[in-house]
């Protein structure tokens, strides 16, 4: 409890330790202001947890290898198809060349 004198009639008034604001003297009905509002610290309404490093699903070495494997597989298929086309073209070219040397289909 805090004891203070009324600024109007000087009567002793008791207030709580944490009291603040406008008051009225019970003896003379004079109004006075007492105390200051407490300083409130800003505190979050919920507990804040530190952020965890975000790791995307499938991130890291494993997904990198999957990507590289996918690229390598695609490249390998492309090389095989290109080689197959080249072999077919060489066979056709040699067939045409050999047939033209022997008089071939069109020759007499």
Textual characterization of the structure:
With 108 residues, this protein is α+β, with helices and mostly antiparallel strands. It folds into two domains: 2-34, no CATH class; 59-108. The chain is 38% helix and 15% strand. The protein contains one helix and four strands, in the order ββββα. It has one helix at 61-101, and strands at residues 2-5, 12-15, 21-24, 31-34. The strands form two sheets. It has a two-stranded antiparallel sheet with strand order 1-2. Strands 3-4 form a two-stranded antiparallel sheet. It is rod-shaped and about 140 Å long. The termini are far apart. The mean pLDDT is 78.
Key terms:
single chain; 108 residues; alpha+beta; 2 domains; two-stranded antiparallel sheet; 1 helix; 38% helix; rod-shaped
SSE layout:
Layout: E1 2-5, E2 12-15, E3 21-24, E4 31-34, H1 61-101
Antiparallel strand pairs: 1-2, 3-4
Give the tally of β-strands: 4
Side by side, the strands of the main sheet go 1-2
Q: What's the number of domains?
A: 2
Averaged pLDDT: 78
Helix content: 25-40%
Counting H and I runs of at least 4 residues, what is the number of helices? 1
The span between the termini is 131 Å
Any low-confidence stretches, pLDDT <50, length ≥5? none
Helix and strand run? EEEEH
Largest sheet, strands/sense/barrel: 2 strands, antiparallel
Q: What sort of overall outline do the alpha carbons produce when their principal axes are compared?
A: rod-shaped
Measured on Cα atoms, how large is the radius of gyration? 48 Å
């Amino acid at each position: 409890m805090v004891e203070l004198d009324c600024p109007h009639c000087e009567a002793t008034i008791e207030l709580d330790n944490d009291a603040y604001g406008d008051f009225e003297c019970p003896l003379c009905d004079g109004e006075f202001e007492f105390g200051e509002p407490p300083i409130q610290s800003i505190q979050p309404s919920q507990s804040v947890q530190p952020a965890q490093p975000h790791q995307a699903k499938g991130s890291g070495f494993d997904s990198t290898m999957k990507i590289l494997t996918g690229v390598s597989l695609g490249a390998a298929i492309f090389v095989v198809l290109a080689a197959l086309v080249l072999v077919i073209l060489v066979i056709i070219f040699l067939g045409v060349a050999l047939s033209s040397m022997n008089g071939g289909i069109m020759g007499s």
